[in-house]
Structure prediction request, 271 residues.
Amino acid sequence: MSDEKPTEKARAVRARQRAIGRELRRMYDDVAQEAVPDDFMDLLRQIDEAEEKGGKKVS
Amino acid sequence: MPNSAPSMHSPKPENPDFKSELLGLVPFLRAFARSLTGNQEAADDLAQETLVKAWQSRSSFIPGTNLKAWLFTILRNQFYSDRRRAWRQAPWDQDAAERIPGGGEDQVASAELSDTVRALKHLSDEQREALILVGAGGFSYEDAAAICKCAVGTVKSRVARARKTLIEILDGSDTLGDATRPAGGEAAREIMAQLDQLSPGRSEQVGKKRDK
Prediction:
């Protein structure tokens, strides 16, 4: 398809981009794999309770 | 499509699934938040705010659409509105993140932060978020565009420029110290613009909390 032959430079750039992608995914995945702090669960529980008490909208 | 979708406009869809889905996506909220802020504490605050907002506005979520993208949109909005409120606070702050002793594993991970991740702070917010969404978060350009409220083409060019900028930074670390040197047109201009934004009047913001 592309008739431009990948030059050395273009290949190098793509390799760099892939490496960058790996690093970014690693950073992101590292955080995503951390255990979620309890604060988050507590938070939802609190919201839930607050809503139950406050706006009783049960139809 | 089954007829399961209850009227989307029911005032309050009490849907236990929604809550558990929300919880299931918290790790990604934290990851995106960390990428945006570069700071663990700020990131978790942001992710929690997002969770509250999401829960409060859950009736506006349209079942069957991308919940993750919806949450990321909320998070991003929150990030920028926090930013506006406290503009001078916390430019992307991976350095602080590295200093934070986050306990065992966190610390190890932080110590291993690559030059690439460090270099992220020299991107504009727009380039960074586009690159993270597409390059790390696995979002399509279309979803990333929806999250960032811009055109698909804009996301593509931001991602491309972000990559280009990162490579330039990584290739010549002196660019960081000497932003006045043109390192390649637009990239250099953006870096300079970013630096200008981050240090109005070159005031030291980092130590502002302990101003004694």
